[in-house]
Amino acid sequence: RLAEQLDDLILVVTSSWKISYGNPAAMSTFPTHINPDITDLRDLFPEESFRGFYDTLNSAMHDGSIRTWSMEITFPLQGTCWYDISITPLKGENQVSSLVIYIHDVSYRVQREEEIRRAGLAQLELNMEQFQILNDEIRNPLQVIKGYNLLQNGLYEKQIDEQLTIINDLI
User: Which of 53, 139, 67, 125 is nearest to 96 (CA)?
Assistant: First the structure.
């Protein structure tokens, strides 16, 4: 069976929230031993802590549509991680009889995105410092030259002013 080989968690839950199947990854994730058709999903995911999770499960059970979302979950053995969760309803006799819950750990991706975001902010701060240096080292002297040129009323005042404008625009 393919599900037995996956590192991702797969649970099949009946309409009464009993777990009818859990792959080995799911079995090893929870401290509570999963007994098929006896263990209640709410023993693994307490309703008070997972209200949005159960709202989504109820919607999928009611309308039979597939749901996918990401959420942060804390498991006793693994700690806090980010997961992509997919709910696929299984229909029998014109109604949803159970749900397949597929839980994929995306913690590495979320951590990597956060690292990239932090690195981007650090680079932005560095760029701002460089722009301040650019302003102090180039624009301020250009303004001094421009002011001196205006005071001189010289022969080349217009040409010098045009060149200063070009340099300023390049910066």
Answer: 67
* Residue pair 10/25 in contact by the 8 Å Cβ criterion: yes
CA distance 30 to 130: 51
Residues 6+ apart with CB under 8 A from 45: 53, 54
Instruction: Please list the pLDDT of the chain residue by residue as tens digits (171 residues).
Output: 677 778 888 999 998 888 888 888 888 877 667 777 778 888 877 777 688 888 888 899 999 999 998 888 776 666 788 889 999 999 888 889 999 999 888 888 878 888 898 999 989 998 888 888 877 788 778 888 888 888 877 777 888 888 888 887 776
- At 18, the amino acid letter reads K
- Looking only at the bridges linking them, the beta strands covering 9-14 and 19-22 are antiparallel
Query: Quick check: 61 and 53 in contact, CB under 8 A?
Result: no
Residue 54 neighbours by CB under 8 Å, 6+ apart = 45, 47
Q: What are phi and psi of 47, to 5 degrees?
A: -55, -40
Report whether 91 contacts 64 (CB < 8 A): yes
- Residue 107 in contact with residue 79, Cβ under 8 Å? no
Whether the CB-CB separation of 21 and 12 falls below 8 Å is answered with: yes
Could you tell me the pTM of the whole model?
0.62
